[in-house]
User: Fold 21S rRNA pseudouridine(2819) synthase from Trametes coccinea.
Amino acid sequence: MVAATGVLRFRERVKSYLLHPRNLVVYADKSIVVLNKPNGLHTQPMMPLKSRASERNSDPFITVLQGIQGDLLPVHRLDKPTTGTLVLARTIRAARDISAQLAHRTAKKTYFALVCGDASHFPSPKGTIKTDLECINGQVNVKGTPNPLPPRAGHGESWVKHAITDYEVLSSSTKVPLSILKLDILTGCKHQIRVQLAQHFAPILSDSIYGSPDRDAPVKSLLGQKYTPFLYLHSSRFSFTRYRAVGPGKAFQFTVGAPLSVPFQDVCAAAGMHLGMDAIAGGVWINGTKVWGPEPSLDQTTKPVTDIIGDKSSGVAMIAEELQGVWYGPTISDE
Assistant:
């Protein structure tokens, strides 16, 4: 899965969030910190941030926030089983700005999913899914279709919302019924991707709510003991507008991506499906130019920004210098 010019080196290959919180960080600069969220971590504090210390210490997400130097403010969330890019603000101004872009749908979130279906499950290699989702007592389904879950008593959230997701089939396996999809969500509803894929095409691999063991069985058989049973949905990139303090062209597009988990890579490799280095290892882009993160023949974490993207007088290089960013994710080294 990696070019012959280098070996991908992950700083952490463990699968649990029960590790030092700094090991979850893949990028940081003056205004934001970006985590590669592992499976199983809630990203909404279960206890108020102002609750008693003994209660806060029992909340895994608050423990993560407190374990990283400086005050951090959550600006968006990922479902507990979803892995990948999670942006945290270091200032109130940054938190307000990112939150406003999310509210106005100008920030872009891109996901990768392993879906239990071959190429024949998709009417076209790319398209848009538009559905009305209905949530009753916290359980989400496409409006007007039978809910796969038994009725649940209680007073959970209830709503009906229109959901829009763009999809693209990146690769389909010839060994097992499995495909890699890239998904851009244009709305933000609970379980949006999971419900839409299950209803329109096929469920995400190892989805305990909208999938089934029968759909997962071919992949489990293919990998044997290497198979890890968790939701194969990864928040690949988060893109939003940032602003320079001074100078021409104050607004610029900032994109950050977290590397794929090792189990996700293992499934892709076993199924004969391939992704590019940027998709696998993540990185940071300014106005579409990659400024931090691994390249097949270059370890960018050890070189000045100007060595990577050219003359300091160029717009992208100047922005990168001003951000004072540091990439903590995977690197490439020759062996």
Summary: DSSP finds nine helices and 16 strands in the chain.
